[in-house]
């Protein structure tokens, strides 16, 4: 147990002793803040132009605009903990640092376990960064247009808690994916292509038919949105029942476990030459 | 003071696909002396060391440190210190942070980091990112990593590569001092001349097989001792040696005869009536090098 704690601590030190984590955090903050602030401004502008009937939501699918805006922390920010997690593994392969790592901790399962735990926490940290961006910019802009910020509502804070959990799980998915695809370029290309193009396309397409929607809700991004409880897709496309929030969390965790087991068996246990 | 324990290889074999990297290799390395692990590039030295350290799984056989496989050591870095290659660093991390990470993972007090940086002479550069380090500085950082746990056993792969002359002198003295303290020191090299002033014993492998083990003196008095003989009439001398049946080669300073005894060669020339202009046993250094090359084979040195 003490060697597991030591290995996990070393993974935190690894993360904080290169510049990658804060560079990614700064970009994540900027990206999420820009998108959340922009959307809040659009809502504010349109609602001030058109007179909505009393009690009607300004967004097509119903629900509060604040939830949609705040959830940008995870619904668009999730790519950052995935990248950080994947880099934590692929850097070790690329710079051949698995040699000293496995010399210090010869039981390799402990190293992988330590990385998963450390990047779970780092994912949570990125969740905080994302929420600072989405709420930090979204809420004042909503308030400026006299829209409800919902910051007093316990539902909002419960959702923020689920955002942190989702981001933490994405960090774990990143580590697991990096173990499965140890090539750094390979895993970065896969992450960017999948999160920015393949999955959005699949989610849009699977909304067209009921049977496809039943499959589409198990896509990782859809599971993550289900966990958080707000989704940009449910607004633009409607269609299909999302998973329960806890089911979404379990689906995301299942992706991480499957990837990590495959990665452990294929790359992690291999000879380090 | 940590005491050394023996390193043992027992019938270790490693196959990569169809290639036999190491075949049925058995030898022991004793504490209190410096053992040279020699062989040409590609002979299987690094693979052998990586099997000892649990990084490469042997196809068969076992490698142990004090009877225990590396992977089951209770305190690995405090038992064995290893420096395997000069490139195992994240270029964006400082030397101090690199050592801090691994000290933490191996539960070694953080105070050791500064101490080993001091020992290897990197203290002044410790907070620079490793990406800007020279090969010699990387070698020193690798050595610092090996020393982190103050281990009784040191395993160093080509530690002299890339060091400047001052660094080479320093590491030789340092390795001797570590062995004198009773530690086990195993140093690999593809050049005998690089380590012959440092090592007490040598283990030589070629093409993954053990070809020699023993002291340097053993190596010197091996069958490869040569006598150099020259004559104003080299052809007549060559004919006389041919007739005597002793194998010989044409060298720069004369004919290089595979024989132990200058008298025997002199007698052959005298009996054939050939004038001799030079007759001597080859110098020890080149004799060692020749013995080494003879053992590892010409085509082995890639």
Report the major sheet of chain B: 6 strands, mixed
DSSP, total strands of chain B: 13
User: What is the H/E order of chain A?
Assistant: HHHHHHHHHHHHH
| Overall pLDDT metric of chain A | 91
Topology, number of strands of chain A: 0
Give the overall shape of chain B.
elongated
Descriptive tags:
heterodimer, A: 273 residues, mainly alpha, 77% helix, 0% strand, B: 302 residues, alpha/beta, six-stranded mixed beta sheet
Task: Record the SSE blueprint.
The complex is a heterodimer of chains A (273) and B (302).
Chain A: H1 2-16, H2 20-49, H3 65-70, H4 72-75, H5 79-94, H6 98-104, H7 108-144, H8 154-180, H9 184-206, H10 210-216, H11 220-228, H12 232-236, H13 245-268
Chain B: E1 7-16, E2 19-29, E3 34-38, H1 45-52, E4 60-65, H2 76-79, E5 80-83, H3 95-105, H4 111-119, H5 135-147, E6 153-157, H6 165-180, E7 184-189, H7 192-195, E8 201-206, E9 209-215, H8 216-220, E10 227-230, H9 234-244, E11 248-250, E12 255-257, H10 262-272, E13 278-281, H11 284-296
Describe the model:
The complex is a heterodimer of chains A (273) and B (302). Chain A is built from 13 helices and no strands. Chain A has helices at residues 2-16, 20-49, 65-70, 72-75, 79-94, 98-104, 108-144, 154-180, 184-206, 210-216, 220-228, 232-236, 245-268. In chain A, helix 5 runs antiparallel to helix 9, helix 8 (154-180) runs antiparallel to helix 11 and helix 11 packs across helix 13 (245-268). Chain A is mostly helical and 273 residues long. The two termini of chain A are 28 Å apart. Chain B has 302 residues and is an alpha/beta fold. Helices cover 35% and strands 25% of the residues of chain B. Chain B is built from 11 helices and 13 strands. In chain B, the strands form 3 sheets. A 6-stranded mixed β-sheet of chain B has the order 5-6-7-3-8-9, sandwiched between helices. In chain B, strands 11-12-10-13 form a 4-stranded antiparallel β-sheet, covered by helices on one side. Chain B has a 3-stranded antiparallel β-sheet with strand order 2-1-4, with helices on one face. In chain B, helix 6 links the parallel strand 6 (153-157) and strand 7. Chain B is elongated and about 75 Å long. Classes of the chains: A mainly alpha (273), B alpha/beta (302). The A-B interface holds A 2-3, 6-7, 9-10, 13-14, 17-20, 91, 95-97, 99-107, 271-273 and B 46-47, 50, 53-57, 70-73, 76-77, 82, 84-85, 87-94, 97-98, 100-102, 104-107, 145.
